[in-house]
Amino acid sequence: MRKFWAWVACIALMTATVGVVTPAVAAKGKPKIVKGEMMDRDGNNIPDAVFLWYSQKVKHSKDADGKYPFTVEGYVITNVGKTQGKLLIINLEEDIAAPSAPVVSYKQVKKGAVKAATGKKKQAKKQTFRNVAPFTPLPTNHVTVIVEGAGTVTSVPTGIACPSTSCEGDFIEGRTVVLVAFADILSGATFMGWGGDCSGTEPACQLTMDGTPKTVTATFSGVIP
Length: 225
Known about the structure:
By secondary structure, the protein is mainly β.
């Protein structure tokens, strides 16, 4: 009997020293969207993706009809990226008229749908998510370009493309914009120089978007054919 109680005491001591390991409990139910946010992935101040975070790891695939079972209010989906754990990225066509905080819906095609559950990743359940955090555009700087003569002006980054007398565009404040002048070689024209917020005769002019509207004149010899 003494040996028995000594054995019990030894087990108790080991348990107190090592601790009790509690097995992890797997998440119950199907994954659901818990957070959404509109994003601008290419940095042009227009939302082009929605990031969705799920309650647990999830995997998505196209339905039997070859389409993704998502809809994003007001947008056209270009593709749905691979899930990164609980994160899913839906890429969208840029549309300045679309809602800044769209409703996202998910619904599989019932008949013949391709199941996406594999291993520990589960297919999401039918749902509508209305709490997508909106995309807030950064402040912009307005630029107006006037072209005189036979030539064109473009910008880097894109936003200005003047094949005629004038054009304008908006650029994010704090960034640098380069305007480039191209004379119409076929008509024998040459670039004469810049005016306004640009100066000199080099074909490239650099502008800093400091919050003040910019007006630039590009003068070329000759006339537009």
